[in-house]
Amino acid sequence: MKDTLFKIGEMAELNHVSTQTLRLYDRNKLLEPQCMDPETGYRYYTLEQCAKLDLIRALKSCRLPLEKIREIFELSSEKRLLEVLEEQTGALSEEIYNLSVSRNNLIRIQKNLQVLNSLPPFGQVFFEYVPERKIDVQQTEFDFFAQGYEGYEKMLRHMQNYLHERKLPPSYFINVGTIMEKEYFVKGAYTSHSAFIFVDELYPDTESIRTLPQNTYMSVASDNPALESEYAKKLYEEIKRQRMTPCGDYLCEVLTQFPLHNSKQLIYKIQVPVQSDITGVFH
User: Fold this and answer.
1) Following DSSP, what letter does each residue of 108-146 receive, concatenated?
2) Which residues are within 8 A (CB) of 178 and not within 5 positions of it... i.e. 6 or more apart?
3) Among 74, 190, 208, 264, which is disulfide-ready with 145 (CB 3.0 to 4.6 Å)?
4) Which pLDDT tens digit goes with each residue over 224-271?
5) pTM of the complete model beyond 0.85
């Protein structure tokens, strides 16, 4: 019979756990030693208790807290076990979703930082090819061009409230930008009441999502929001000079808005999709 009994160290080694773990399970009344030798005071586990330890470890690896595992054992109900597992599956699915979204947005931040290192000097117009992107666009009562940076921050709060109300991960709240419709850009009547965020395949489908087709863009970057109108005009003049024409709306994309050592707090890029003006007349 002695061969079927194990001291705490032997039980730990047999099951590839630490003695501290077994003591924790003992204190939480999850797995208490089966018997005690009255002569030596040693407490022993049995081989049959390995099955219970296996279940504890399996449930714990599924992120179930010890108190929830204890509840399962106390009730001794397969029905309750099924309910708890279904609840935990839902919780893990939500966590996996949030982690996947966070991972995608962390990759976006990394790419933005890489873009910063390859940007031409601020204020210099340049061409770039941009793959297809998707954005969620929200109309606001604020106007960046009329209200300046204060208006921009109010547009950001509007977008942030939108995410909060729909319980969407806050990690989407990066690269928040503004849109000016093409007709206003061409006319030089600068106005922007639309804010947007970039979204991915994990983002819930909504009517406000727009697809930006792959295209060649004419762009200019800056670290001074007060210069956006000036650079928008410069961008327009360069498009005309290059005998191109806008084929979509004007976007202002914030590349970064957090200070890192001596870096600027806000760096943005304004961009307009363009195509050759085959008629020779700029519209």
Assistant:
1) HHHHHHHHHHHPPSTT--EEEEE--EEEEEEE-S--HHH
2) 144, 152, 155, 192, 194, 195, 196, 251, 252
3) 190
4) 988 999 999 999 999 999 999 999 999 999 888 665 555 557 889 999
5) no
